[in-house]
C-alpha cells in the first residue's frame, strides 16, 4: 500500500471542494435478480462458522497500519491503533456477518482490523454493502471504500466514512489523487442502524445512495472529469473494495474517551454490472 497523507490534507484544507453542479444523466441501477448470485461480478454474504476468517480467496487481512506521510499527532505510529490479522479483530459471527472489532488493551494500546478485496472491478459497475456501525465513538474511523493503489494512477472512492475526531462530517468522497489534493465530497448523516451504501460508476460519473430503492435519487453525484486528474475513465482502470475500522489517526482523533470494544458489522458486499 502507498503512503497516505490525504486525510492530513483534509484536516488542513477542510471539506470545501464539492463536486461541480453540472447535472448528470439519471441512473437507477438495478440489483442482480434475487437468487441468481451468478449475476454478481463479486459478492460475499459472509456465511461461515462463528469465529472463522473471511474467505481468503476474496479478502486479505491487513497485518499492520499504513505509514502516513507528514503525520499529524494522531497519525504518528506511537499514537495510532494498529491492524492485526487475528480472529479477535476480524471474524465471521456465524450469523452471516463479517465483524471488524476495535479493542483497547490493558496497556492502553488499540487494535482493530481491515480487509481488502482481492478482486478488481472496472467502470460501469455498481458496488453495494450492507453495514451496521456499533463503533460511533471517540477514536473510531470506520469506512467502506474502493481504491486503485498504483502510485502513478491512484484514485479512491469513499462510499461511507465516519470520523471519531468530532471535527469532520461523515459522508462520501471521491479522490482523484491519493495525496488528498483533488477530491469532491458530500457530507451525509451516518448512524448506528443497518444501512446499504451503494455507488454506481458509469462513463458519465459516480452516483451515491443510502438504502437504495428503485426511483430513489442519489444524494451525491460526481460528473466524470469534474475533478482535476480524474483517473476513473482511463482505459482498463479498475479498483478493489476495502472495509476497515481504524482507531485514532487524523480521522479518528483521540480514542481515550471512547467506548471499547467497538464493532463494524458487514452483512454482505455485492458488485454487479450496470
From TrEMBL:
<dbReference type="GO" id="GO:0004553">
    <property type="term" value="F:hydrolase activity, hydrolyzing O-glycosyl compounds"/>
</dbReference>
<dbReference type="InterPro" id="IPR050546">
    <property type="entry name" value="Glycosyl_Hydrlase_16"/>
</dbReference>
<dbReference type="InterPro" id="IPR013320">
    <property type="entry name" value="ConA-like_dom_sf"/>
</dbReference>
<dbReference type="GO" id="GO:0005975">
    <property type="term" value="P:carbohydrate metabolic process"/>
</dbReference>
<comment type="similarity">
    <text>Belongs to the glycosyl hydrolase 16 family.</text>
</comment>
<protein>
    <submittedName>
        <fullName>Beta-1,3-glucanase</fullName>
    </submittedName>
</protein>
<dbReference type="InterPro" id="IPR006311">
    <property type="entry name" value="TAT_signal"/>
</dbReference>
<dbReference type="InterPro" id="IPR000757">
    <property type="entry name" value="Beta-glucanase-like"/>
</dbReference>
<feature type="domain" description="GH16">
    <location>
        <begin position="17"/>
        <end position="274"/>
    </location>
</feature>
Amino acid at each position: 500500500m502507498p503512503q497516505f497523507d490525504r486525510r492530513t490534507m483534509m484536516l488542513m484544507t477542510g471539506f470545501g471542494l464539492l463536486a461541480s453542479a453540472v447535472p448528470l444523466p439519471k441512473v437507477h441501477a438495478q440489483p442482480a435478480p434475487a437468487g441468481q448470485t451468478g449475476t454478481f461480478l463479486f459478492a460475499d454474504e459472509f456465511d461461515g462458522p462463528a469465529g472463522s476468517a473471511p474467505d481468503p480467496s476474496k479478502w486479505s487481512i491487513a497485518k499492520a497500519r499504513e505509514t502516513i506521510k507528514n503525520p499529524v499527532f494522531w497519525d504518528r505510529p506511537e499514537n495510532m491503533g494498529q491492524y492485526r490479522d487475528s480472529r479477535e479483530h476480524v471474524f465471521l459471527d456465524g450469523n452471516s456477518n463479517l465483524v471488524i472489532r476495535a479493542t483497547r488493551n490493558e496497556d492502553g494500546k488499540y487494535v482493530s482490523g481491515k480487509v481488502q478485496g482481492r478482486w478488481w472491478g472496472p467502470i460501469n459497475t455498481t458496488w453495494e454493502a450492507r453495514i451496521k456501525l456499533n463503533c460511533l465513538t471517540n477514536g473510531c474511523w470506520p469506512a467502506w471504500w474502493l481504491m486503485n493503489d498504483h502510485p502513478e494512477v491512484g484514485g479512491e472512492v469513499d462510499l461511507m466514512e465516519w470520523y471519531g475526531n468530532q471535527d469532520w462530517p461523515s459522508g462520501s468522497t471521491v479522490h482523484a489523487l491519493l495525496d488528498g489534493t483533488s477530491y469532491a465530497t458530500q457530507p451525509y448523516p451516518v448512524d448506528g442502524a443497518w444501512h446499504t451504501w451503494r455507488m454506481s460508476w458509469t462513463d458519465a460519473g459516480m452516483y451515491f445512495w443510502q438504502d437504495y430503492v428503485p426511483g430513489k435519487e442519489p444524494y451525491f453525484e460526481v460528473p466524470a472529469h469534474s475533478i482535476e486528474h480524474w483517473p476513473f475513465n482511463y482505459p482498463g482502470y479498475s479498483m478493489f473494495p476495502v472495509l476497515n475500522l481504524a482507531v485514532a489517526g487524523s480521522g479518528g482523533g483521540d480514542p481515550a474517551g471512547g467506548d471499547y470494544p467497538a464493532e463494524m458489522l458487514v452483512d454482505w458486499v455485492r458488485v454487479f454490472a450496470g
